[in-house]
From TrEMBL:
<feature type="domain" description="NAD(P)-binding">
    <location>
        <begin position="6"/>
        <end position="338"/>
    </location>
</feature>
<dbReference type="InterPro" id="IPR016040">
    <property type="entry name" value="NAD(P)-bd_dom"/>
</dbReference>
<dbReference type="Pfam" id="PF16363">
    <property type="entry name" value="GDP_Man_Dehyd"/>
</dbReference>
<protein>
    <submittedName>
        <fullName>NAD-dependent epimerase/dehydratase family protein</fullName>
    </submittedName>
</protein>
<dbReference type="InterPro" id="IPR036291">
    <property type="entry name" value="NAD(P)-bd_dom_sf"/>
</dbReference>
Length: 358
């Protein structure tokens, strides 16, 4: 029997991984304790995401906290060497929250990852392991690049070697503020790499920029494209925070991220680290995304502006995905920014905001 284990299975990345891998595996085992609601309140609830994955015929859910080492171990022990793939997407993604409760943040992101890695090592060490990491591990290091301000965005000096394709994996990790979230995610990222490099496990680390899709419970703290559309559809002002709304992110549809993880799973390279994002073609500032959404839908987006930026929130990030594409030439993103925005618009226009507890 072939089993895939997906942590964070009710969330954006995990939910998409369940749907994508269900037809290819006999069983998909999900781990999620619904903790996103604790981080972000009822608007962050993943109850809808959980209900959706529960409808997948060969899905089995475990309401397990990744901080609970014994419980995580028990799930992996149950399926043992039948487990061929693990996508670790459970996590605490909020930077302000991480500053308020750094111990909990570290326990979820860093210790939780180590718990999953260790259980995989002991019970199904041959499985492919995808660690969903983040460009936030670099904190504000990208702000040391020579940036210029244009009418609608921060932009890298066109003479800089990163201008055309974005920042590659050689960017420094030290001498940066990164919020406690960046610390816990970096610890997880390094622990995952070590299981690949030292122990030879089939671990791949994917450092993502801004991932989105209808499965995202976008809130002001996390999921800016989702929350922008959600706010616009509800007629609530969207909170733009700092940098004149000109901060740039490389948006990637979650289906394209999971497609990349699938490519890796077919021919894993132990201990590799990849930037995974939408590239320059899908990079947008907040102001530009608002204008694009208004153009696509004819709606007018109201927003509130707070000038003080979030701590260690860089003005510009585009990840260079060429390393991944060299290793996996079959992959390229299939969904452009308009697809992403229209999918979010359809989702939030149809969504009933009242959700049952997860
Ligand atoms: N969405 C993005 O833009 C983005 C970008 C870069 C990296 N990431 C990383 O990818 C991962 C997944 O992100 P996402 O956007 O799917 O987030 P998400 O919040 O939609 O999903 C995470 C899921 O993990 C679950 N969870 C949280 N704590 C848990 C715990 N202690 N035990 C079990 N389950 C728990 C949550 O309930 C949620 O369903 C995160 O680690 C995040 O840091 C996301």
């Amino acid at each position: 029997m072939d089993v895939a284990v997906i942590t964070g299975s009710a969330g954006l990345v995990g939910g998409e991984a369940v749907r994508r891998f269900a037809p290819e595996f006999d069983l998909v085992v999900g781990i999620d304790n619904g903790m996103r609601q604790e981080f972000f309140g009822p608007a962050g609830s993943v109850a809808r995401g959980l209900a959706e994955v529960r409808r997948v015929g060969n899905y089995r859910h475990h309401r397990v906290d990744v901080r609970d080492q014994a419980a995580v171990d028990e799930v992996l022990r149950t399926w043992g060497s039948d487990v061929r793939l693990v996508v670790h997407a459970a996590g605490q993604p909020g930077r302000a929250w991480s500053a308020e409760r750094p111990l909990v943040d570290f326990a979820v992101n860093a210790v939780g990852t180590l718990n999953v890695l260790d259980a995989v090592r002991r019970h199904c060490g041959d499985a492919v392991f995808a660690q969903v990491s983040t460009a936030k591990v670099y904190g504000d290091a990208p702000d040391a690049l020579p940036l210029v301000e244009t009418a609608t965005r921060w932009e890298l000096d066109p003479a800089h070697p990163f201008h055309e394709h974005g920042v590659d994996e050689s960017i420094r990790l030290d001498r940066a503020g990164r919020a406690f979230l960046g610390v816990s995610k970096l610890a997880a990222d390094l622990a995952a790499q070590e299981h690949g490099r030292q122990l030879g496990m089939k671990v791949g680390v994917f450092r993502c920029g801004s991932i989105t899709g209808p499965g995202q419970a976008g809130v002001p703290e996390h999921g800016f494209a989702s929350n922008l559309v959600r706010s616009a559809v509800r007629g609530v002002p969207y909170p733009v925070v700092g940098h004149g709304g000109k901060q740039v992110r490389d948006v990637l549809d979650v289906r394209d991220l999971v497609g990349a993880i699938r490519e890796f799973s077919l021919e894993p390279r132990p201990g590799e680290v990849y930037h995974l994002g939408g590239g320059r073609e899908r990079a947008t500032s907040v102001l530009e995304l608002i204008a694009r959404y208004e153009h696509l839908t004819g709606a007018e987006v109201a927003f509130d502006y707070s000038p003080r930026p979030r701590f260690a929130d860089p003005r510009w990030w585009i990840g260079d995905t060429r390393r991944f594409r060299r290793h996996y030439p079959g992959w390229s993103p299939a969904h452009d920014l308009d697809d992403v925005l229209l999918a979010l618009h359809r989702h939030w226009s149809a969504a009933d905001e009242v959700v049952a507890p997860g």
